[in-house]
Design brief:
Layout lengths: L1 E7 L4 E8 L4 E5 L6 H10 L3 E6 L11 H8 L2 E5 L9 E3 L4 E4 L2 E7 L8 E5 L4 E5 L17 H12 L7 E4 L9 E2 H7 L9 H9 L9 H8 L8 H8 L8 E3 L5 E3 L1 H7 L4 E4 L3 H4 L10 E2 L18 E4 L4 H12 L5 E4 L2 H7 L10
Parallel strand pairs: 3-4, 4-5, 5-6, 10-11, 14-18, 15-16, 15-17, 17-18
Antiparallel strand pairs: 1-2, 2-3, 7-8, 8-9, 9-10, 11-12, 13-14
The structure holds glutathione (GSH) and fe (ii) ion.
């Protein structure tokens, strides 16, 4: 199985990618709107088909990426039946199974943090995705969205603590950077929910948390009740589209905007080509792209003024590695439309695009 834990530092949210490595089918639990591009890049680079995004609950602190990912990747939106959200493709109840390849996740109703909260347990019970029902040495608050401390206590004790002790716990958030726990560990050491703590103790604890509401609560809840679909059609199209309009670009999980040789050839004349190799290479066997400006990577930061800010920039090197770094330097310096020539001069030549100079 393929498993990845992704993080949103803004809201301290974890997103989980699970895929059957043979069938290449995947699901993504609790995607975050702002990371849809990153998550889509990962799914594509790993050669996966995203079948479903799954929500553990209607989040109060960030907007879900479910709708944007549906637009970009064609995934379907699965979410708890009792969360009150509209626009889902599949509404899950306790015991429902979500299949991807030969693997399945089982939905477990674990209300209490919100009324609709759900956890997802992997078929072999090796991993549980507990949303905000059970956090690492903690749990979600119960003071909004029809939360209930009594209900949460029962959800954790009856549903989650009946899983095997070695079942790993993956929560929706951690505010201290902790990444995973296990059912056995939480039964023993969770200060709110360990087996030694009674229901009354727990309710007392939760009634006196004294937390301020999440700063984004209004915006997040209303957007999540629409599965994160932007309110206006034009915003929605924008969010779904690849967000570079000046050329056919793709975004890598490494965080780099890339253009393929054919895309650059179509746009030559409309973009500045900056070659960041050394002068010897520029004049050497691979040749260079006609009109390319030579600025070796080592002197790029001193020579930004030679590049126009109002015209897109494509950066080139031998293999695409140095130029990837150059795109980062340029973006940090305020160049908004920058892309890396994927595969560099090696791919450009392998695909038989024309060069100036160079050997045959
Ligand atoms: N300061 C955070 C608060 C986030 C928050 O309240 N998170 C909820 C989960 S949606 C929670 O249960 N937090 C538990 C805790 O902070 O102990 C924000 O403004 O977003
Ligand atoms: Fe939450």
């Amino acid at each position: 199985m393929i498993f990845r834990q992704l993080f949103d530092p803004q809201s301290s949210t974890y997103t989980y990618l699970l895929a059957d490595s043979a069938a290449r089918e995947a699901v993504l639990i609790d995607p975050v709107f702002e990371h849809a591009r990153r998550d889509a890049a990962l799914v594509e680079e790993l050669g996966l088909k995203l079948l479903f995004t799954l929500e553990t609950h209607v989040h109060a602190d960030h907007v879900t990426g479910a709708s944007v990912l549906k637009q970009r990747l064609g995934s379907r939106i699965a979410l708890p039946r009792y969360g009150g959200a509209e626009g889902g493709d599949r509404y899950l109840a306790d015991g429902d199974l979500v299949a991807f390849g030969m693997r399945t996740l089982e939905a477990l109703a674990t209300p209490g943090h919100t009324r609709g909260c759900m956890s997802y347990v992997l078929d072999d019970r090796s991993r549980a995705f507990t949303g905000d029902a059970l956090l690492i040495r903690g749990c979600g608050r119960t003071d909004f969205q029809e939360g209930s401390a009594r209900q949460l206590y029962r959800s954790v004790r009856e549903q989650l603590f009946s899983l095997p002790d070695d079942c790993l716990v993956y929560p929706a958030h951690d505010y201290r950077g902790l990444t995973a726990s296990s059912i056995g560990e939480e039964k023993k050491y969770n200060p709110r929910l360990a087996e030694s703590v009674g229901e009354g103790d727990f309710v007392g604890y939760m009634t006196n948390l004294g937390l301020a509401h999440p700063t984004l609560m209004e915006v997040a809840v209303s957007a999540n009740l629409r599965c994160g679909r932007p309110e206006r059609e034009d915003e929605s199209a924008e969010a779904g589209a690849a967000d570079a309009d000046w050329a056919p670009l793709s975004y890598t999980f490494a965080g780099i905007w890339e253009i393929q040789p054919a895309g650059l050839e179509e746009n030559l004349g409309r973009v500045q080509v900056v070659d960041v190799r050394e002068p010897g290479e520029f004049k050497g066997a691979l040749g260079h792209i006609a009109g390319a400006k030579l600025i070796p990577l080592g002197s790029l930061t001193k020579r930004f003024s030679e590049i126009k800010k109002d015209e897109p920039v494509v950066v080139v090197c031998r293999s695409g590695a140095r130029s990837a770094q150059a795109t980062i330097l340029l973006r940090n310096a305020g160049f908004a439309r920058v892309a890396n020539l994927s595969g560099g001069m090696l791919r450009w030549r392998a695909q038989r695009f024309p060069v100036e100079g160079g050997a045959d």
